[in-house]
């Protein structure tokens, strides 16, 4: 809590400074994963590689020219689709199409934290390329603020983050007390549990929900290894969010229900399993994703 | 070859091994239900949890291992006999690639991997084998074992690439396939066994009358013809049996490599290269190897599990190297 | 050194001072034709991408003339990609040719003996398992070398040909393949996606150091391969014939194998496992040359041609989604291989 308030203070201070000196307002240095990037002015032609960058840009009212087909399919993530409109696809997450990106003549490229070095080398020749530090375990506000700073929208980003904080504070009052939750992905060979230190876990904890022990123990990997059905009880909690990359979470739930080991879980017996969109729940981060997750939680848990 | 065992002795030894491994598979696991509790559960007096783990989870898994091991062991021997090539592996004929491709296609069209209709993968395996069969029927290519295997490899490559292409299109499927592509016995739906048993039985039924012609074929085309067997028909039938067996195994557990390569090796070392002797032994050895690998997969990284396909590769490859180093490769 | 006298009509002699070179007519024609095809397709690929350029503008941009946009497009994107395709294709083609001849088995590609899988496993490990600062391509290089050394060491005594070498190679390859699959299944999806190009083979944004290293390696490797070819083509018949003709079998085998590993390792460090090039290019060269020699240079040319064409196809078929070159080579290459197999059904394998 202290860290976030400190950060917020620092950001507010920066925002204040920026406002008071309009000439300097545009010039800024961003400390990225591959070194610092100098930027000036408000970028007009943005290419957002990856859903987190796209989420940040769209939530800040910036319409990127291009983005990648997400891991969920052959288009941008469907929860961003409506806002993104007719956006040009410039390749897939696995293989960004460099020539297609160049053809858009970007003046800013926002990439995800795990952009390979070789791609960064090429992209940064085309336009300033911002790769946030810290990967998936980073506080999501920080990643979001980095994108916002690059877009010259730091002030608005503060507002967005504050909106989330307000909503969380309000929602927290309506949450049941002392409840434990776990986020599980069901795969053909068995489930794994998502680390509680990722974006979703960060949100759930600020809501006052406790993490499952196994999820809390995943401090370096985004999720555990596949859990043996004999040990399935270890993913049990008061509430289980069952995620799949398929937007239709029902199917994963149906699969899981075919396993007697799954139906023996406390949460399943109490009918407290909620199927959710794994695209948002297991890999996204950002303002729009946060609103989605809070919607899901509110629908399921809030009194 | 070193001292060979007589067939009944080898069979007895393998059967004993199999029993021991079945017991081990029931008693050992990745969970908290230990050896003693498992034994109690087997004898009928233990708590509910232990009984559930041993009698439901481990038992279902052991049954599946028996089935898949049987299919892969048998398929390996048949395939090596018919191609007369000790390198021949079900994967090389395009059978595994066919099955994988069918699964990718099925998931792509909307079926989720776990609830996959097992018939789809079997059909894919059949398709893979049919394509190879077509090739073998063309202008005498079938008489050359090297070329036959090479054609299979080309098909495998083609189907594998088509799978990758589909996965490129649909990354949700790709993410599911990441787990399916390493075969495993864990987490299979309960009805897997009842679906795949007919496939196994059918495959074995097709193979049974072919043992004699195959043994004759090992002595050469002319000898086989002279003894009144039809070489081409024999090949066709055997490949059909292989497709059925491998298709069933792949559908049930995903692609598990190396069993079809390792089992015939061990069998040949024990009782010589005559298929009339190796086939029966392999049907026992296949489940042995798979059960051993599966039990190991639960113990190595407790409380997690390794996919058994990884274990079979890690157990199989060194054995294969040891065998090839210790002996000149027998000509088939 | 004894001479075998070939039918003179099929050959011509090239004299340069004291040196003379016996050229096989058909292979020389084929080589010339392939070079021409390479030049034309390179020009085509440089000019006609998603952003249309005239060949002239592309050529000017390649030499530093033109507007910044074009310069960036040609010099930073297309030329490096073209070079990495040309180099890796040539290296894989030559390596495949060497190994197939050596092992007297068309199945014996670098992929079959585990080099591809070794490179993939190490590269994937550097991305998903141990996120080090080491570049994936450096690790791919060491992975290929590790797999080759393991295969050599474990097959020791069995010679470089025959089944033992291949079987050991298959085993090593399977080990690395299983390790790769395991790592991918344990990795989170983002890391798995980042590792993807290394599992299928791709030419998208390859590290330039690796490309230059490969270029240098080819410069040394191809002439060496050409020198080894005579010995190799004699060894094709049988050991006794080769010994009778004065070939030092053991030395030649070791040298050819080392060369093959050298070329493959450098190529997969750039492009990842594009195994089918090594399988198809020699077949294509043999088919074009229509003789039972060891067309190592033509195989290299075929490999380069196949690689750049496949990459071009992959970039444009589903644009803007790129299909990695490894998938294209497999889809195009496998049927071609089958066709070759069926066509020369009655001939013996090399």
Give a topology summary:
The complex is a heterotrimer of chains A (303), B (332) and C (350).
Chain A: H1 2-20, H2 22-25, E1 28-32, E2 35-39, E3 46-48, H3 51-59, E4 66-69, H4 78-84, E5 88-92, H5 98-103, E6 108-110, H6 117-126, E7 129-130, H7 140-150, H8 154-174, E8 180-187, E9 190-193, H9 199-206, E10 210-211, H10 213-217, E11 239-244, H11 250-257, H12 260-263, H13 266-269, E12 273-277, H14 278-283, H15 287-301
Parallel strand pairs in A: 3-4, 3-6, 4-5, 6-7, 8-10, 8-11, 11-12
Antiparallel strand pairs in A: 1-2, 8-9
Chain B: H1 7-27, H2 35-43, H3 48-83, H4 95-108, H5 118-136, H6 145-169, H7 171-180, H8 192-207, H9 211-218, H10 221-226, H11 231-253, H12 259-271, H13 275-299, H14 308-326
Helix pairs in contact in B: 1-3, 1-13, 2-3, 3-8, 3-11, 3-12, 3-13, 4-5, 4-6, 4-11, 5-6, 5-11, 6-7, 8-11, 12-13, 12-14, 13-14
Chain C: E1 11-16, E2 19-24, H1 25-47, H2 55-62, H3 68-103, H4 115-129, H5 136-154, H6 163-186, H7 189-200, H8 208-235, H9 239-244, H10 249-271, H11 275-289, H12 296-317, H13 325-343
Antiparallel strand pairs in C: 1-2
Helix pairs in contact in C: 1-2, 1-3, 1-12, 2-3, 3-8, 3-10, 3-11, 3-12, 4-5, 4-6, 4-7, 4-10, 5-6, 5-10, 8-10, 11-12, 11-13, 12-13
Description of the molecule:
- The complex is a heterotrimer of chains A (303), B (332) and C (350).
- Chain A is built from 15 helices and twelve strands.
- With 303 residues, chain A is an alpha/beta fold.
- In chain A, the strands form three sheets. Chain A has a five-stranded parallel β-sheet with strand order 5-4-3-6-7. In chain A, strands 8, 9, 10, 11 and 12 form a five-stranded mixed β-sheet that branches.
- Chain B is mostly helical and 332 residues long.
- Chain B has one domain: ABC transporter involved in vitamin B12 uptake, BtuC (Orthogonal Bundle).
- The model of chain B has no long low-confidence stretch (mean pLDDT 79).
- Chain C is mainly alpha-helical.
- Chain C has one domain: Orthogonal Bundle (ABC transporter involved in vitamin B12 uptake, BtuC), CATH 1.10.3470.
- Chain C is 71% helix and 3% strand.
- Chain C contains 13 helices and two strands; from the N terminus they run ββααααααααααααα.
- Chain C has a two-stranded antiparallel ribbon with strand order 1-2.
- In chain C, a hairpin with a 2-residue loop joins strand 1 and strand 2.
- The longest helix of chain C has 36 residues.
- Chain C is globular.
- Chain C starts with 10 loop residues before the first strand and ends in a 7-residue tail after the last helix.
- The N terminus and C terminus of chain C are likely disordered.
- Chains in contact: A-B, A-C, B-C.
- At the B-C interface, helix 6, helix 7 and helix 14 of B face helix 6, helix 7, helix 11 and helix 13 of C.
- Chain B: Its main location: membrane.
- Chain B: It is found in: Cell membrane.
- Chain B: This is Iron complex transport system permease protein.
- Chain B: It comes from Pseudomonas cuatrocienegasensis.
């Amino acid at each position: 809590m202290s860290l976030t308030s400190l950060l917020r203070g620092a950001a507010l201070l920066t925002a204040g400074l920026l406002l008071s000196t309009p000439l300097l307002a545009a010039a800024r240095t961003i400390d990225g994963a591959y070194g610092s990037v100098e930027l000036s002015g408000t970028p007009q032609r943005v290419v957002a590689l990856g859903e987190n960058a796209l989420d940040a840009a769209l939530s800040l009212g910036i319409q990127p020219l291009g983005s990648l087909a997400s891991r969920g399919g052959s288009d941008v993530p469907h929860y961003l689709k409506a806002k993104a409109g007719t956006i040009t696809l410039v390749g897939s997450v696995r293989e960004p199409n460099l020539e297609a990106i160049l053809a858009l003549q970007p003046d800013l490229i926002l990439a995800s934290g795990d952009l390979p070095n070789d791609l960064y080398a090429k992209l940064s020749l085309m336009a300033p390329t911002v790769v946030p530090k810290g990967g998936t375990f980073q506080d999501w506000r920080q990643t979001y603020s980095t994108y916002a700073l690059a877009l010259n929208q730091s002030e608005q980003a503060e507002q967005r983050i504050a909106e989330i904080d307000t909503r969380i504070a309000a929602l927290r009052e309506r949450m049941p007390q002392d409840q434990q939750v776990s986020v599980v992905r069901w795969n053909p060979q068995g489930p794994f549990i998502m680390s509680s230190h990722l974006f979703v876990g960060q949100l759930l904890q600020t809501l006052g929900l406790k993490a499952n022990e196994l999820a809390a123990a995943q401090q370096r990997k985004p999720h555990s290894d596949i859990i043996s059905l004999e040990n399935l009880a270890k993913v049990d909690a008061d509430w289980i969010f069952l995620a799949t990359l398929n937007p239709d979470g029902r199917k994963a739930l149906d699969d899981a229900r075919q396993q007697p080991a799954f139906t023996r879980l406390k949460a399943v017996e109490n009918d407290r399993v909620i199927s959710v969109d794994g695209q948002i729940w297991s890999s996204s981060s950002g303002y729009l994703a946060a609103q989605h997750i809070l919607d899901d939680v509110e629908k399921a848990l809030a009194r | 070859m070193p001292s060979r065992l007589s067939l009944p002795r080898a069979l007895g030894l393998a059967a004993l091994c199999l029993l021991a491994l079945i017991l081990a598979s029931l008693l050992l696991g990745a969970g908290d239900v230990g050896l003693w509790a498992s034994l109690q559960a087997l004898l009928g007096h233990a708590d509910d949890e232990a009984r559930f783990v041993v009698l439901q989870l481990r038992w279902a898994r052991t049954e599946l291992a028996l089935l898949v091991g049987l299919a892969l062991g048998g398929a390996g021997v048949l395939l090596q006999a018919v191609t007369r090539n000790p390198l021949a592996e079900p994967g090389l004929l395009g059978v595994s690639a066919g099955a994988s491709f069918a699964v990718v296609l099925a998931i792509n069209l909307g079926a989720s991997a776990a609830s996959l209709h097992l018939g789809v993968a079997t059909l894919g395996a059949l398709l893979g084998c049919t394509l190879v069969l077509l090739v073998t029927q063309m202008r005498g290519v079938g008489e050359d074992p090297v070329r036959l295997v090479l054609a299979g490899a080309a098909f495998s490559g083609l189907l594998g690439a088509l799978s990758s292409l589909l996965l490129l299109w649909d990354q949700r499927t790709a993410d599911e396939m990441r787990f399916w592509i390493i075969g495993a016995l864990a987490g299979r739906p309960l009805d897997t066994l009842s679906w795949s048993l007919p496939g196994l039985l059918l495959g074995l039924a097709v193979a049974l009358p072919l043992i004699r012609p195959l043994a004759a074929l090992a002595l050469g085309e002319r000898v086989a013809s002279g003894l009144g067997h039809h070489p081409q028909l024999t090949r066709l039938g055997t490949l059909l049996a292989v497709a059925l067996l491998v298709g069933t195994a792949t559908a049930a557990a995903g692609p598990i490599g190396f069993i079809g390569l390792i089992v015939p090796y061990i069998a040949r070392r024990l009782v010589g290269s005559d298929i009339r002797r190796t086939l029966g032994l392999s049907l026992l050895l296949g489940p042995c190897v798979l059960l051993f690998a599966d039990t190991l997969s639960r113990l190595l990284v407790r409380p997690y599990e390794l996919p058994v396909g990884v274990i079979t590769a890690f157990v199989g490859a060194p054995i294969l190297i040891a065998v090839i180093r210790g002996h000149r490769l027998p000509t088939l | 050194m004894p001479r075998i006298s070939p039918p003179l009509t099929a050959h011509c002699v090239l004299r340069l001072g004291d040196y003379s070179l016996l050229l096989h007519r058909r292979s020389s024609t084929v080589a010339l034709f392939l070079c021409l095809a390479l030049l034309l397709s390179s020009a085509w690929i440089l000019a006609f991408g998603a952003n249309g350029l005239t060949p002239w503008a592309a050529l000017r941009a390649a030499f530093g003339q033109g507007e910044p946009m074009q310069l960036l497009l040609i010099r930073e994107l297309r030329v490096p990609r073209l070079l990495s395709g040309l180099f890796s294709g040539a290296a894989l083609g030559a390596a495949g040719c060497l190994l197939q001849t050596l092992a007297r088995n068309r199945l014996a590609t670098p992929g079959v003996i585990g080099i591809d899988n070794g490179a993939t496993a190490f590269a994937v490990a550097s991305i998903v398992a141990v996120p080090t600062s080491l570049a994936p391509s450096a690790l791919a290089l060491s992975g290929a070398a590790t797999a080759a050394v393991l295969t050599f060491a474990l097959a020791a005594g069995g010679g470089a040909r025959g089944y033992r070498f291949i079987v050991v190679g298959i085993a090593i390859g399977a080990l690395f393949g299983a390790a790769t699959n395991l790592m991918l299944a344990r990795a989170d999806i983002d890391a798995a996606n980042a590792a993807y190009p290394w599992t299928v083979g791709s030419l998208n944004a390859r590290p330039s150091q690796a490309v230059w290293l490969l270029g240098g390696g080819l410069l040394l490797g191809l002439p060496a391969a050409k020198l080894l070819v005579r010995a190799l083509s004699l060894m094709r018949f049988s050991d006794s014939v080769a010994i009778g003709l004065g070939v030092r079998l053991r030395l030649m085998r070791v040298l050819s194998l080392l060369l093959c590993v050298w070329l493959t390792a450098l190529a997969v460090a750039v492009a990842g496992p594009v195994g089918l090039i090594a399988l198809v290019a020699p077949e294509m060269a043999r088919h074009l040359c229509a003789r039972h020699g060891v067309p190592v240079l033509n195989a290299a040319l075929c490999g380069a041609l196949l690689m750049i064409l496949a990459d071009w196809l992959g970039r444009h078929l589903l644009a803007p989604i790129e299909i990695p070159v490894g998938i294209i080579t497999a889809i195009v290459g496998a049927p071609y291989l089958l066709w070759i197999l069926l066509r020369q059904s009655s001939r013996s394998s090399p």
